[in-house]
Amino acid sequence: MQLEVRNITKSFGDKEVLHGVSFTVESGRAMGFLGRNGAGKSTTIRCLMDVFKQDSGGFYLDGKPLQVKKYRVGYLPEERGMYSKHHVLDQLVYFARLRGASKEDALRSANYWVDYFELGDFKKKKMETLSKGNQQKIQIAQSFLNEPDILILDEPFSGLDPVNAQVFKNAISQFVAQGKLVIFSSHQMGYVEEVCDDVTLIHEGSIRLTGDLQQIKREMGENKLQLRIEGLEDEDLARALQAQFPALQTQHHEDGLILDTQNQVSQQQILAFVSGQGWTIRSFGLYTPSLNDIFLAKVGEHA
Amino acid sequence: MRDFKLVYNYELKQQLAKKSVIITTIVLVLLALIGTSIPRISALFSGGEPTPPAADTTLTEKAGYVFSDTALQQQYTGILNLQQENLYTSRDELLAGLKDGALKVGFVLNADGSYETLYQDKGVDDRQDTTLGQLIAQQQKEKMLAARGLTTQELAAIEAYEPAATLTVLGKNTENNILLSMVLMVAVYMLVLIYGNITSTIIAREKDSKAMELLITSTKPTPLILGKVAASGVSGVVQFGAIILAALAGFFISQEYYDPMIRHMLMGSLSTGYVLTYIYFSVTGYILYLFLYAALGSTVSRVEDVGSATAIVQFIFIAGYVASTFVINSPNGGVAVAASLIPFTSIMVMPIRAGLVTVPAWQLV
Predict the structure, then answer these.
(1) How would DSSP label each residue in B248-289?
(2) In chain B, what are the domain boundaries?
(3) Residue numbers in B near A86 (CB within 8 A)
């Protein structure tokens, strides 16, 4: 399956919050939907889920307009919403049945996911009696009900401790391996980097970047090296290198100075210069940006 | 339809399973049962048989009498069963008895029928003066009747005369139906106000708890809102029905202990046509108001805003209630007819009109 988000615009009053948002998501590949607070992630997702209508543009599944209620879609809204006074299992079965499952299938699916998140003891408890973290797991469990073909999760890592985050990542990996279409938004770059094959970065209602994460990393790391010298501050190193190689551009990074060679300076030239200075190399190699670097580079420069 | 049933069943189960609903229902059912059984309960405490009125001792207990002559004293000693301690020789002696607390009331009776009552302190319940006055009046009347050769029984027979009368009411007898109509009007009033507010709160809570987003992405809004309103409505009818049934059970169990007039007024207009009219207008009006309350509940995002959002519909409904009071006085007046035809007020007004007068068929449709 391929989900195409095509040229979505959305305004609230006079303010347009989505300006022609477009990207595609392939099944069997998890897509991380990233952006700062208020960038338009949840609005895009709500338009996709038909919570409210976009002003223009559309959503297409395998080229045909998407009718979200005709597919098995697991959805975790940004604003978590389940009944605090109702029993956990009762409401999970209810939501599963509303999405088309038979009573038996709904019960089986609800039991499976509650047990998967190790919350079997809470099935007959009211939601409000669970800790915030356990409530979050129940919320995630409701989005996994009925073996959905499409999973849309808005900030799923919010409120999860590292152990539960790992349990959740394993579940996502299973869905991806089964060829499901998975989209989730998050601020937690480390988790996204671990789980996602593709990323889409939205900023102020416009898409800044979309595509294969590894490809993006390669492109953004092209012609870049990372160098750290023992006992030498990055500022001093940058001055010395730029005096020797005027075409070289430098950028500070927590792991060492990043050198953009502009394809005009070779690794050998840099190594020869460093050796000639009698410096001891602490680290030197090709620079591969992290997702956090990419996010800061694409969003930070527009912030 | 499947989703409607799902929403309806889930919501109804959740609402009826609430501890607050169960406890409230049990308490109200018991109150209704006990309340309507009070005449029987009172009878139990009085031994189950109507007790003869207790002998009136107010005219002899701590009461003193002074008579103007011996014949008068003999006459009233027999009538009132006076003892020696009730008899005094002078007004001053009576006053002394009142002052020292030996007497509560004193009487000075004269042969011409006049009398004086003396109290040290007169309480609200102290009516010995009028009681004795009635007794003296009775004695005097008997004397006058005897002078004319008549007995009291003969006079009573004359006064009891009533012409043979036949009452033919072509429509409805308002006198009989008014009490039942009032009771049913208040029942509908409470049902709509209580469960209308509950419905709007349920809808608002979905938004407040953010559950709405999950629900509308899981099913279509139409079965969702229909299911919720239906569940809320049925929950109200179940709870209210239990209370009404308890009240009816209490009434029927104890009906022989009720005043015949009240019994007649409550049961007088329970015709099939009236019951059907009442059910039709109450149910359709109830549904209309539940949807209005639900619609207004959906306009707010916080439960605490429900009150202000539903003020308008409460105003309309209370206007209907006020209009229904006009109906009792003038069931075929302009206000009554108009209010019984407007859907928002007909819920209250039409059943009352139907109970009091014969409503033309075209107005009922």
Answers:
(1) HHHHHHTGGGS-HHHHHHHHTT--HHHHHHHHHHHHHHHHHH
(2) 2-38+172-364, 63-159
(3) 14
